[in-house]
Amino acid sequence: MRHDNRLIVDSADYSRLQLTQESVTVDILDTFLWILPILLLPEPHSPCLRIVTISSHYPSLDFVSQSTSVLGGVYGIVDCDTIHDQLALYKSLINHHLKYFRPVEKPQEFQYMKWVQYHLKYIDGWPKMDMNKKNVSKIRFHKRHLLVVEQTITFLSQMFYIVKNYGKLSFFEIGHSYITALMTIVIFSRSVVTALGRYRKIARYFVSSLHLYHYKDISEYALQTHLLVHRLSHYYTVYLISLVVTGMLLFNITPLYNNISSGVFNSPRPENMTFQHAVYLGLPFDYTTDIKGYFVVCILNWHLSHIAASYFCTFDLFLSLLILHLWGHLRIILNNLKTFPKPYTNNSMYTEEENQVVLLKLQECIRYHNFIISFTVMMSNVYDVVIIVYYLFHQVTGCLLLLQCSTLEWESLSRYGPLTLIIFQQLIQVSMIFEILGFLSDKLPNAVYSIPWEAMNVTNRKLVQVLLQKSQKPIQFKAMNMMSVGVQTMASIIKTSISYFIMLRTIARD
């Protein structure tokens, strides 16, 4: 049996794949039945048809058999005794127009990474990876700065509308403009960050160095961690991108539906009826009663909503991916410490040769820990202001959204209910992801102390002391070195928002 030519095939399709010396036949169901799971499920660890050579993708998977379960995905093995068999299999797949079987050679080729790239490029939040090329797109360079200018103009226009209509509209009507203006502040802060060079540097560093794909061949446990984080990242990406589409559609379709149901498009138009909009701006023309002005602002609002959804969901998605991969690195270093080699020839002390091996292991652990700490500091320098603005936004907007939903009218619930759920779940999920990073880092000191340091020589004991001192400092994200990001801060914000909501509801009723 030659491992170099073995192919991993999902068990769901294992029974439908027949391999012979001359040809390969694959029973493919209707195109719609297999294209959807291929797009939605992670590769190559999903129950859809995914085939990959072990030698070119996961060399450590020689232990996989048909009864082996890898993170919920059961695989079968097809033996290719000759290169002809392997080429025949690929030829059959190509004939069926299945272009998804090419082995992944870099992190950008994963499906969830492609989605992240696509949505970040819309807001110019994905940097150019190949910096050796001089032909960097000037249009892209200008786009991220134009987005900063666009959000500045949008915020000023919203404030002009609020000041102009202050006292003319009810608290619930003007509250919508308060919410959209606060969202614009968050979008502005994130557009500024994406325009900075240090953000683009950390994005390149994530793809080129931090991504667990680069560490899958270190050990079997590193491979399993990569598979776990890969699956979590994929489904998390699908979830957040669905929120981008859902939020944008609901925010714009709801006022359109209300306009249609109220009859403002009828001729003649009912008296004292105006057009509803997703975002109200202070503009030099009438767009609440004039049909031409309505369509101009309606199209503009679709663009602004897409930008807002991308900055809120996709920006948080990329930050969450950074945390998930850091979490994976912490799992690997904890496993390295738990499986630290013990004395082989002597039960009490390492031999001189063993001390040399231990020295290399300790140096590797220290370098790995420094790598994790340095990236955490780098990430803190990029995202600290964004996190503070984000938490302040939740503190104020949470109570306003609850206040808008408190009327329990269909119009308010349909318009602000989904937005309220999306905003609060964004707060919860970001805080939870940061919390699991801190929770895992708290286990490092005990893991370091549990290695057999008493059996080492003096030099290695000093290295253990250095590693122990470094590990006692928790890997915790602090915005501006003063606000801890985690579950406790999240709970405090939610409780305060509810308290302010009760107070504002009482004022609004009076």
From TrEMBL:
The alphabetical list of record keywords is: Cell membrane, Membrane, Olfaction, Receptor, Sensory transduction, Transducer, Transmembrane, Transmembrane helix
Query: Which Pfam family, any one of them, does this sequence belong to?
Result: 7tm_6
Q: Which residues cross the membrane?
A: 146-163, 175-196, 236-257, 309-328, 371-393
Q: What membrane topology does the UniProt entry give?
A: Multi-pass membrane protein
Which GO biological process entries does UniProt record here?
A: signal transduction
Could you name the Gene Ontology cellular component terms for this entry?
A: plasma membrane
Please give the InterPro entries that the UniProt record associates with this protein: 7tm6_olfct_rcpt
Provide the protein's localization: Cell membrane
| A GO term for molecular function | odorant binding
Protein name per the record: Odorant receptor
